[in-house]
Amino acid sequence: TPLAELSAEDVEDWHAALLARKKRRGGGTLSPSTVVTAHRIFSSCLKEAVRRGRMPFNPCSIVAPPSADREPPEPPSADEVDLLLAACSEWPNGARWVLAITTGLRQGEALGLRWRDVRLAAPASVTVRKAQKRIEGEWVHGDPKSRKSMRSVPLPAVAVGPLKALKDRRAVADIGGLVFTRPNGQPVHSRDDWQDWQDLLGSLDLPHYRVHDLRHGYATELLEQGEDPRVVQDLMGWSTAAMAEIYQHVRPATHARVV
Question: Which ranges of the chain does DSSP label H, i.e. alpha helix?
Fold first, then answer.
């Protein structure tokens, strides 16, 4: 459709098509929040088209995106995290999941992490500078999600040991110095990473949490411990502290402590 002919009705039809589209994995259709994100990106593009005189107005500005109330995240419980940490000591890729549990790194950030950005001596930390992403079918390591995503996250002692062991037993070094690789030194792709996580959960008869749920768990734990949301914002790499609002569900143990 030529830009100048794009109508509000076209945008509404696009929303409907997206809401009916099947997810690539996990079953079901795209969520309203995904469609809202797509709407915002598209609207931003059309604003630029208006500025350049390619179209008279932005039709996205008069079409409301679908309602997308965020469901509170449901990360693994504290007991489940203990089970996972114990299992990771024997799991071949255990260091990967210990890092996710104890730092809240996004999947792409963890898979794009390089040894030069890992400090194992005290005070231990990891610094996010790159993230793995897929662009036009090719896996690349580029800038992370936003400027705020470039950050250093403290590394607790429980994660230092597994990472040291991983580094010491590495038989084939990746030419780019990636922390997590396949046995031949090639990058680990997100699909294989997801499958390994599901295999670990299955071995413990735990629910099939998403990889991203470990990030939710990290944020939840920090907020439940009473950390300042601005500190949590920095550690999570959020662009705004308002993101903490979606984590303001509290577990019964927190209620009991308040009482």
Answer: 8-20, 32-51, 78-88, 94-103, 107-111, 157-169, 190-203, 212-224, 229-236, 252-258
